[in-house]
Specification:
Length: 520
């Protein structure tokens, strides 16, 4: 329905309590009954009643506020040209702001990594993710675990398998009842498609909910795909792909973090030889509170790495989980997992006894790569928000962006982000082309990439808070996403291997191939 044409003098007449109209981007909004609902109180509405409030609105509100209250729009200024910003843009649009998007995915840039198929896939993922945003923000704020319905929708729409990565299972998606975003042919899915899916999902900017929607699942399912028996795959892969069952990877223990070889959780054969009896505890297990299946590292032998095995353990008598309250939203389902005489069929052994440490290390490369994509994608979102805030916010009578120190901060954020993203793309290319059996040589570079990425994210977060000021420390309003991210930024520096462990691993792996004749 066409909007009513209203002249500015008519708007000016509605300037008193109980009769308040305002102009925002040449659209007219009737706020007469909105005063008591306004979070900032009715006084500020009275001040701008009958006036053009465009500038002050965008200095104090996000675009989604304008979209939320479109029901209050009653007309458009008669001399306005074109459509208003809320009518000519969508939340899932690809941003035209410099550095807000990956350069190689822009149509005006060139890339050896991406093609039009990747761009179409990105657009489909963006639209899907934006459709989840409202619920994501509500659940993240309330600390609610994602619902089974959310997981199933993500599963059948391909937003679980797209974040697991390429493999032979991509040719079986129809059998699993899964369709990739944009109806992409699974045979064409490559490592850059996964990078796109991971990054787009992270753009939700709700760290607890993002991890709740499968951070543990996405690292728990690959060991089944790579090392599970045929019986395991037949039973679990389909339901896990569709989001009907959720996996968790259980490695870390109360006494053991990066020192995987020192784990204490035990699995001893029962007298009949048909079961492993598992006892011990795991801690900080993402998705653990609602997981159905726990891919668990256990000690079946003596001390050290050679005594570790991997078991697939279903939630069953003796296995209990408790929520751990960490600095981000509880919807991630971070758990303390106890195993008290849990009976596990010997058929649930993954690989052979003593293979567990190798399986854990094998999984680490992809896990660390995922962490890098996650934190950098969210850091890019924060950088974009800083650009927007700096142009909308006025201080000392002019936009914040006109302060040289602010431009310097943005330059530092962008240059570090783009540098480490280029390294990410380089390693992703190797993952895409290197024979699978050789990929262990990427362990060192991936560990160093993670170290550098989390250092960069720490820098970006610090500078972003300085740009946003008090709003960057406030859980609502213009800086809400940044405040949320500040509580998450250090996660990447700890889980998946601490910065110190990753840095050391990168150098140690380089020394293994150090040429004997390399001299100054």
């Amino acid at each position: 329905m066409a909007l009513k044409s209203i002249d500015r003098s008519s708007v000016a007449a509605h300037n008193r309590p109980g009769d308040m109209w305002v102009i925002i981007d040449n659209d007219v909004y009737d706020l007469s009954k909105f005063g008591k609902m306004h979070p900032g109180g009715e006084a500020v509405l009275k001040e701008y009643a009958g006036k053009d409030a465009t500038e002050v609105f965008f200095e104090q509100h996000r675009m989604d506020v304008l979209r939320k209250y479109q029901r209050l729009k009653i007309g458009r200024i008669s001399d306005a040209k074109g459509k208003s910003i809320v009518d000519r843009t969508n939340a899932h649009d690809i941003s035209q702001l410099a550095y807000a998007e990956v350069a190689g995915l822009r149509t005006d840039f060139h890339s050896p990594y991406y093609n039009d198929g990747h761009r179409a896939f990105r657009a489909a993922c963006r639209k899907w993710v934006e459709g989840l945003r409202s619920q994501a923000e509500q659940f993240d704020k309330a600390g609610k675990e994602p619902t089974k319905e959310m997981f199933i929708k993500a599963g059948v729409d391909g937003m679980i398998v797209s974040r697991i990565g390429p493999g032979p299972w991509m040719k079986e998606l129809k059998n699993y009842g899964v369709t990739l975003p944009g109806n992409l042919d699974g045979a064409k899915f490559d490592q850059f498609h996964e990078l796109i899916a991971q990054a787009e999902f992270s753009r939700l900017g709700t760290p607890g909910f993002i991890d709740g929607m499968g951070a543990g699942h996405l690292i728990g399912l690959p060991p089944i795909l790579h090392f599970g028996t045929t019986a395991m795959k037949d039973k679990f892969v389909g339901p896990c792909m569709r989001g009907e069952k959720i996996c968790a990877l259980a490695i870390t223990e109360p006494f053991v973090g990066s020192d995987v070889a020192g784990m204490r959780c035990t699995a001893k054969k029962s007298p009949c030889g048909k079961f492993y009896i598992v006892n011990g505890a795991k801690k900080w297990i993402t998705n653990g509170t609602f997981a159905d299946v726990f891919v668990t590292a256990v000690r079946t032998g003596g001390k050290g790495a050679k005594g570790i095995s991997m078991l697939l353990i279903e939630r069953s008598p003796g296995l209990t989980t408790k929520l751990l309250h960490t600095s981000y939203a509880p919807c991630a389902g971070t758990a303390y997992v106890e195993y008290n005489d849990v009976k596990v069929p010997v058929e649930n052994l993954m690989g052979r006894e003593g293979d567990g440490f190798k399986l854990v290390m094998h999984n680490f490369n992809h896990e660390r790569w995922v962490i890098v994509v996650n934190v950098l994608a969210q850091a890019r979102l924060i950088t974009e928000e800083c650009f927007k805030w700096a142009t909308q916010r006025k201080v000392f009578g002019k936009p914040l962006i006109e302060q040289p120190v602010i431009r310097f901060k943005l330059a530092s954020m962008v240059s570090q982000l783009e540098s480490v993203w280029a390294w990410l793309e380089s390693i992703t290319h190797e993952m895409n082309t290197m024979p699978y059996a050789e990929r262990q040589k990427l362990g060192g570079p991936t560990a160093l990439l993670k170290y550098q990425a989390t250092r960069v994210v720490n820098h970006i977060t610090d500078e972003a808070v300085q740009i946003f000021g008090g709003r960057g420390l406030t859980r609502s309003g213009m800086g809400a996403r940044l405040e949320n991210f500040t509580r998450f930024a250090k996660y990447g520096a700890v889980y998946g291997g601490s910065e110190e462990i990753c840095a050391d691993l990168g150098v140690r792996q380089a020394l293994r191939t150090y040429p004997a004749d390399a001299k100054l």
